């Protein structure tokens, strides 16, 4: 009698979306300014804050931002966090970068805002067959990208 083999992994489509991304940050005020004012993400406040985080948000230990597609970026205040390596290309992380989409007609404006705010640029703007991108660092040295599809 043969038995049906047990699955070795989740079936495609089991995971529906990214729920949140969490970053440890050394300077909460600088990070809140960066994600809220420079990148223009909406900070969750009041009733928007997940009930499990209300106390930590009130204590200034966590801040939550949401992207237009609903992905939450959690910032966890870690004042003792080691500073990033002076050469951000040598900072150790298992993640490479987080990329945000933007409409092609807004790409150049985003680049100018990064420059006006003296955000450290790693590379770009670059143009590829898949569109344009610019890579830059957040206040804790994490690599981010703003990218757009090609103009059609």
What would you note in describing this structure?
The chain has helices at 28-38, 54-58, 107-116, and strands spanning 20-25, 42-43, 62-66, 72-77, 98-101, 121-128, 131-137, 143-148. The protein is built from three helices and eight strands, in the order βαβαβββαβββ. The mean pLDDT is 88. The protein folds into two domains: 17-81, Roll (2,3-Dihydroxybiphenyl 1,2-Dioxygenase, domain 1); 82-152, 2,3-Dihydroxybiphenyl 1,2-Dioxygenase, domain 1. The longest helix is centred in the first third of the chain and has 11 residues, at 28-38. The N and C termini lie far apart (58 Å). The strands form two sheets. It has a four-stranded mixed beta sheet with strand order 1-4-3-2. The protein has a four-stranded mixed beta sheet with strand order 5-8-7-6, covered by helices on one side. The protein has 152 residues and is of the alpha/beta class. It is 17% helix and 29% strand.
- Number of domains as seen in the coordinates: 2
CATH homologous superfamily caption of the largest domain = 2,3-Dihydroxybiphenyl 1,2-Dioxygenase, domain 1
Structural class: alpha/beta
Radius of gyration from the alpha-carbon trace, in angstroms: 19 Å
Low-pLDDT stretches: none
CATH architecture of the largest domain: Roll
Largest sheet: 4 strands, mixed
Q: In the CATH scheme, what's the topology name of the largest domain?
A: 2,3-Dihydroxybiphenyl 1,2-Dioxygenase, domain 1
Strand content: 25-35%
SS field, number of helical segments: 3
What is the C-level CATH assignment of the largest domain? Alpha Beta
Biggest sheet, strands in spatial order? 1-4-3-2
The counted number of beta strands is 8
Molecular shape = globular
Kindly report how far apart the N and C termini lie: 58 Å
Order of helices and strands: EHEHEEEHEEE
């Amino acid at each position: 009698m043969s038995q049906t083999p047990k699955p070795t992994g989740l079936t495609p489509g089991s995971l529906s979306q990214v729920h949140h991304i969490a970053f440890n940050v050394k300077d909460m005020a600088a990070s809140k300014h960066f994600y809220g004012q420079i990148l223009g993400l909406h900070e969750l406040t009041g009733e928007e804050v997940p009930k499990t985080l209300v106390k930590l948000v009130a204590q200034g230990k966590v801040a939550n931002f949401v992207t237009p597609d609903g992905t939450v970026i959690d910032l966890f205040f870690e004042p003792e966090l080691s500073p990033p390596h002076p050469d951000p290309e040598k900072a150790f992380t298992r993640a490479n970068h987080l990329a945000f989409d933007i409409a092609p007609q807004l790409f150049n404006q985003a680049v100018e805002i990064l420059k006006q705010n003296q955000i450290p640029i790693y590379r770009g703007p670059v143009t590829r067959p898949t569109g344009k991108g610019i890579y830059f660092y957040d206040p804790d040295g994490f690599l981010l990208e703003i990218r757009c599809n090609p103009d059609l």
